[in-house]
Automatic annotation (TrEMBL):
Keywords: Coiled coil, Membrane, Protein transport, Transmembrane, Transmembrane helix, Transport. Residues 87-154 form the T-SNARE coiled-coil homology domain. Belongs to the VTI1 family. It is a single-pass type IV membrane protein. The lineage of its organism: Eukaryota, Metazoa, Chordata, Craniata, Vertebrata. It comes from the Eukaryota. It is found in: Membrane. GO terms for molecular function: SNAP receptor activity; SNARE binding. PANTHER family: VESICLE TRANSPORT THROUGH INTERACTION WITH T-SNARES HOMOLOG 1A, VESICLE TRANSPORT V-SNARE PROTEIN VTI1-RELATED. This is t-SNARE coiled-coil homology domain-containing protein. Pfam families: V-SNARE, V-SNARE_C. InterPro entries: SNARE, T_SNARE_dom, v-SNARE_N_sf, Vesicle_trsprt_v-SNARE_N. GO terms for biological process: Golgi to vacuole transport; intra-Golgi vesicle-mediated transport; intracellular protein transport; macroautophagy; retrograde transport, endosome to Golgi; vesicle fusion with Golgi apparatus.
Length: 187
């Protein structure tokens, strides 16, 4: 009787330790591995609940058997039964705490994934803005190149026109000087 209950307790202890270990690994995982680990832990939690029900049923069966013997049960067996029940309740509380931690860890993982998704969307929008700005800069650079060529051409024409004006001015001054010279020399 006691060996069966200890077997239940040992199985329950191993299972809760494994669940706790896996819960501790969940925050370090990502993507599909994290989802798979959560599914496995949930299955183990269901298994632990079933084991707990089996232990409670066995405990009730033993208690009924001990109490139904019209005083033939010993007080030491009742004490052992109470101790085993206390262990069962303690393990149940641990399992419930682990379940709450698992749920909290899963919630944090979901929130982290949502934040990461928002960051990726913002980065994508920023990349598009930068690409549009780069394209505008290229267009501006092209337009500046055209403007520079036009201004260079205009500057050449201005210089040519000034040289032409200077040459014409020299010719006119020289013609006037010759006309004055021949006018005074002929008298």
């Amino acid at each position: 009787m006691s060996a069966d209950f200890q077997g239940y307790e040992q199985d329950y202890g191993v299972l809760t330790a494994d669940i706790t270990n896996r819960i501790g690994k969940i925050p370090k995982l990502s993507g599909e591995e994290k989802k798979q680990m959560v599914i496995n832990v949930e299955k183990q939690l269901d298994e632990a609940k079933e084991l707990k029900r089996s232990r409670i049923a066995y405990s009730d069966e033993v208690r009924n058997e001990l109490l139904g013997d019209d005083g033939n049960s010993s007080e030491s067996q009742l004490i052992k039964l109470r101790e085993e029940r206390a262990h069962l309740l303690d393990n149940t509380e641990r399992l419930e705490r682990s379940s709450r931690r698992l749920e909290a860890g899963y919630q944090i993982a979901v929130e982290t994934e949502q934040i990461g998704q928002n960051i990726l969307e913002n980065l994508n929008q920023d990349r598009e803005k930068i690409q549009r700005a780069r394209e505008r800069l290229r267009e501006t650079d092209t337009n500046l190149g055209k403007s520079s060529r036009i201004l260079t051409g205009m500057l050449r024409r201005i210089i040519q026109n000034r040289l032409l004006v200077v040459v014409l001015a020299i010719i006119i001054v020289f013609t006037i000087a010759l006309a004055i010279y021949f006018t005074f020399r002929g008298h």
